[in-house]
Structure formats: C-alpha cells, structure tokens
Amino acid sequence: MIPYNESRKCHILSNYSSTVKDSNRTETTKMSEELKATMQEAPVFEKPRIEEGLFECECVEVKKIADGKFGARVAVICDIAGQSVQLAKVSYMNLTPKSAATDMILSFGCEFMPGNDFNFGELVGKKARAMVEDYTGTDGVVASTISKFKALK
After folding, report:
1. Three-state DSSP class for residue 63
2. How many domains would you assign to the chain?
3. Would you state the torsion angle of the CA atoms of residues 54, 60, 63, 69, taken in this order, to the nearest 10 degrees?
4. d(CA 74, CA 103)
5. For the whole model, what pTM was predicted?
6. Is 75 inside any structural domain?
7. Is 18 contained in some domain?
8. Which string of b and e fits 52-85 if b means at least 16 CB within 10 Å?
9. Which of 6, 18, 40, 133 is 20–30 Å from 91 (CA)?
C-alpha cells in the first residue's frame, strides 16, 4: 500500500520504494519488483562501428518507434554499401519544409511536397548517400550512426 499524506492530499512516493513492514514481516514493494523486472528485460542491441565518411546506402526497413519529446519518430534502417552492417537514422515525423524528415525524404529522391502527408514505407528500396559518424552511447561504447542523408549524384 502506498502511504497517503492526508494534509497534502497526495501519496508519499518517497516512502513507497522503501520496505514495508506488515504483520512482522518485511517485503519489497511491487514498484521495486516491477522496476527490477523491467531492467532485466531491456534488449541488448548490436552497436556496429565502421569508418566515418559518406557511403552509398539502400533503405531496407522503416520502423515507427517510441514517441520522443517532440512527437512521433521513425527509424530508417539502411544497408551501407561496401560494409556488412546496417545503420539507422532516427527522425521525428515532422514534415515541415526545414525538418530532418523532409530532408531525408527528398535525399532518397521521393516525390514530396513539404507539409503534405508521406508514407515512410516508400523509402524502402530507395538509395541515397549516408553521412556516417561515430557517437559515444550512455554506456561508453563508441558506435556508428547515420547523421544525415544526401541525394545520389
């Protein structure tokens, strides 16, 4: 049970994560158990690393991923030519004239007018050039990512 502060009309969450004594026994709270279970089930992703540079790529998959701070996001997954890896570029699905998503769509050579709707699935099979750069993740591992797409010449 979550302690309740009657004078403030709210639950006291700081005490909820501590142990609760009930009938002379101590048990961990459900909140702590759920958090531990979630942490153990976190997926482990491969973090490939290749040299930085501009590579030809082909879009092989597009996935809608969890919403971010500014709304819906999409991950564009590409095969990098001459390398045996797939890298992704994550972008918000905002389709304004100066958005990263609009720049990405136009780089793949798709017919598109900024401000209109776009089916991101149309990117699959299309080619562009990918600017590959290194980044350091929160776990300290250096990996490669696509920072930007450019149209093929």
Report:
1. strand
2. 2
3. 0
4. 14
5. 0.66
6. yes
7. yes
8. eeebebbbeebeeeeeeeeeebbebbbbbeeeee
9. 40
